[in-house]
Amino acid sequence: MNEIEKVLITKSSMDAIGDAIRDRNGLLTTYLPSEMPTAIESIPNNYTLADEGKVVKNGALVAQTARATELTANGIYDTTENNSVTVNVSGGGSAVVQPLNVTQNGTYNPPSGVDGFSPVTVSVSGGSSLVEIMHQGQVSDTSHYMTAYFDAGVNLSDYELIFVDLYKNGALIGSNIASPQSLPATFYITGDLSYTMKLSSDSIACTHYSGSYYNLYVNVYGFNR
User: What is the CATH number of domain 129-224?
Assistant: First the structure.
């Protein structure tokens, strides 16, 4: 048979425990020491799921205030009815974007530690191009008027500008530029104004009123930006 351990407790302590029970359950019941555990377990829980997240203020439950959705300046922002947080926004001003020298196509990422910027993909157009249309096209000698014809399939309207170089005996006499949008176009060869060139959609002709026509040829290039 187990012996019951006996302890000594003052009357004032017992009265205080009884008063605490009655304060919680709102009853006027008096309790024997053996009845107090059951009375404490019977104290009702007045909280519900709706009280989730609430805080106690002045002895009552109150809902927390919403946190600011976007913090753009330093200051104190309330997170609850009785608690606040101080925010120190880094930088305190507008972001500074450094210039970037782009020399080739690719994806460029912001520097490490920079927030709020996405990678930028650069696709630079092919740039300027010079296409050879006619190389050493021999001009036929027909008494002051000579013509060289372009190969089949050449379309001068595919280009923005046409460059013409005129050679005699293997040496460059001069050059000029014509626009495919204004064909046929007639122009002088710079370097020797006695040569007149006429550019058509299918040929280029040379007119000269003095000197020899032998060993004349033209190089023609198309240019696109």
Answer: 2.60.40
